[in-house]
Amino acid sequence: MKDTEYAFAVARIRSNENKLLSSATVESAITASDYNEALKVFADSGYADFANEDEEKILTEKQREAFELIYSTAPDKKCIDFLIVKNDFHNFKAILKSMVQNKSVDGLLLTPSIVDTKDAVKAVTEKQFDRLPEKFVESVKKAYDVLVTTLDGQLCDMVLDKACLEMILGLAKESKDAFAVSLANKMTALYDIKIAMRCMRTGKDESFVMDSLAKCDVLDVSRLAKASISGEDTFYEYVKFLSLGNLAECVRKSYAAFEKEIDDILIDSVKDAKYHCLGLAPLAAYYFAVENEVKTVRIILSCKKNGMSVETIRERVRKLYV
Amino acid sequence: MFSSGMAIAIIGAVLAALVAGIGSAKGVGMVGEAAAGVVAEDPSKFSKVLILQLLPGTQGLYGLLTTVLVLSQLGVLSGAPLNLTVAQGWAYFGACLPIMIVGYFSAIAQARAAVAGVGIVAKNPSQNGKAITMAAMVETYAILALLVSILVVNGLK
User: Fold this and answer.
1) Of A2, A39, A283, B129, which has the maximum CB count within 10 A?
2) Cβ(B145)–Cβ(B98) under 8 Å?
């Protein structure tokens, strides 16, 4: 698809970028004296009036609106599927586990998603996997078989996480957009490192790690798997060799710092889209920006609710796109 | 009955308007799409983006100007066409080439610059003067091409 076909979509995105939170507003919310003061900062900035409605509902709606905007304006809808497919896999995990535990899935499902949440619940609970889009059938069926055979939620997550990363990269490649492919490669690499670190911390063996990792162009999964079973120092050295921001340093810090660094690296990777006046890049970057912004507001409000210090909040807050 | 030279010259003249006009139509359409995106979010920016949308339209006018000039010189407009040799016909065709080719490509290039300008207006409307200036810089090369075409056509009198 020609980048010129994105002229309308990019112009709408540029107009909407003005509504994104500024770093000054975020800083004011972080330094607010308490939770109510932070709510007032967000209300005064025009971001959202949390006083009259449930904050989670408002934040979910913000994300849905951002996706709706890029979906309604994108000339090729399939090109943006790679941005939301992780919500589908989250939903399948939630549905499968709720089904096995005989619990309700209410409030656990994420939108936007490629598969409508009601359809996903129906197909999985009735074990009619063929009703799902073809690309999901094999992985969901495999995850279901693993879960009912072993009752091990971690194994089920492993199957779906790997399938998710492979699908993100596959969908980005299908879009034939260089920015999408590069971003998907980076996402896959970062989540692979996250999986490998989790495996290192829980003492998994090499074959388990290899089975959990999705191949991408940024790193060699077999080297990553080997590094993860060779101890923290070797793992640190390999991550350092990959030169992904300060990720290597974060391996030795907390898991929260590591997760924040992953989000920051991704937002840094999409910042380049500010200089694209046409093409898919500004749309993808905008969705990432809103996703990051919602995460930031959630962190600030939850920390304020729990009376955490300004320094702790600052450590957790993600980088902004604008 | 037209001579072969006249036919070649007329083809050149028509292509000058046609090719430059296609470039302008594509360019104005592209900027129009971007402008519509901004107006959809904030209708008050209409006048600012309209100027940017008009910029790639000038190449089509330059093509038309060259066509009228050539046709007038060939006597086609007055109903008394000249009897041109093939070499003279090719000379007129050559005179039309600068605005034909540069007009097409500069219209597309100017449209891309104008689309980027629309992005500036969307984010910071007070900077629209800079956005217009940057897109207008591309115009220089369309004007130079028009000048060359006019000079050559006049030289063939």
Assistant:
1) A283
2) yes
Using CA atoms in the order B129, B132, B133, B135, what is the torsion angle rounded to 10 degrees?
160
Do A285 and A16 meet the contact criterion of CB atoms below 8 Å apart?
A: no
Chain B CA closest to residue A15: B122
pLDDT tens figures, A58-95: 998 898 899 999 999 998 888 888 989 999 999 999 99
The residue type of A93 is: K
Q: Looking at CA atoms only, how far is residue B117 from chain A in angstroms?
A: 9
Chain A: nearest CA to B147, how far in angstroms?
30
Q: Which CATH class name applies to A79-176?
A: mainly alpha
Decide if B115 and A15 are in contact by the 8 Å CB cutoff: no
| CB A38, CB A301: distance < 8 Å | yes
- Digit-coded pLDDT (tens) for A163-212: 999 999 999 999 888 999 999 999 999 999 999 998 888 888 888 889 88
Q: Look up the pTM and report it.
A: 0.85
**Least confident piece of the model among A26-30, A77-81, A220-224, B91-95:** A77-81
| Partners of residue B36 in chain A, C-beta under 8 Å | 8, 11
Which candidate, B103, B17, B23, places its Cα nearest to that of B68? B17
Superfamily of domain B4-155: lithium bound rotor ring of v- atpase (1.20.120.610)
How do the domains of chain B map onto residue ranges? 4-155
Task: Please state, rounded to an integer, the average pLDDT across all residues of chain A.
Answer: 90
Tokens of A176: 């034939």
CA distance A295 to chain B (A): 24
Say what the pLDDT of residue A60 is. 87
